[in-house]
């Protein structure tokens, strides 16, 4: 299974912001520089995450984003379902062998197992070593666990 770049960026933003102190605001430009990703791409992703309730934003010169709820309450599987358009691994609808083929069922089972694993993780689980994230991003003060 391959996730889209959009989902990759969404998870990167959540990880970056989650590695911060809860009160600290992270400007999109800072996240863009940290990952070497276009600020314009991140703005679209961040807007979506704000609208979905994962992030809160503060406008203005000293504004930025932070988690809108505790990292333990952000489920990775739910985020992936939100950011992915569809999960069709192959297009079986117009295939002539679809009525007799077992591949569709096998792929559906594999996808369900994939999502079940992601459903078992929260953002807090992925940030188990928050101090390591802080160090990688060159942050002055590691976030609280």
Task: Explain the layout of strands and helices.
Blueprint: H1 5-18, H2 28-35, H3 39-51, E1 55-58, E2 64-67, H4 76-83, H5 103-119, H6 123-126, H7 130-136
Antiparallel strand pairs: 1-2
Give an overview in words.
With 145 residues, the protein is mainly alpha-helical. The protein is built from seven helices and two strands; from the N terminus they run αααββαααα. It has a two-stranded antiparallel ribbon with strand order 1-2. Strand 1 and strand 2 form a beta hairpin. Helix 1 crosses helix 3, helix 1 packs antiparallel against helix 4 and helix 4 crosses helix 5. The chain starts with a helix and ends in a 9-residue tail after the last helix.
Mean pLDDT: 89
Number of strands: 2
Q: Please report the distance between the alpha carbons of the first and last residues.
A: 31 Å
**Rg over alpha carbons:** 18 Å
Structure classification: mainly alpha
The unreliable regions are: none
Q: What strand line-up does the widest sheet have?
A: 1-2
- Which percent band covers the strand fraction? 5-15%
Sheet of most strands: 2 strands, antiparallel
Tally of DSSP helical segments: 7
The helix content, as a percent range, equals 40-55%
What's the overall geometry? elongated
Order of helices and strands: HHHEEHHHH
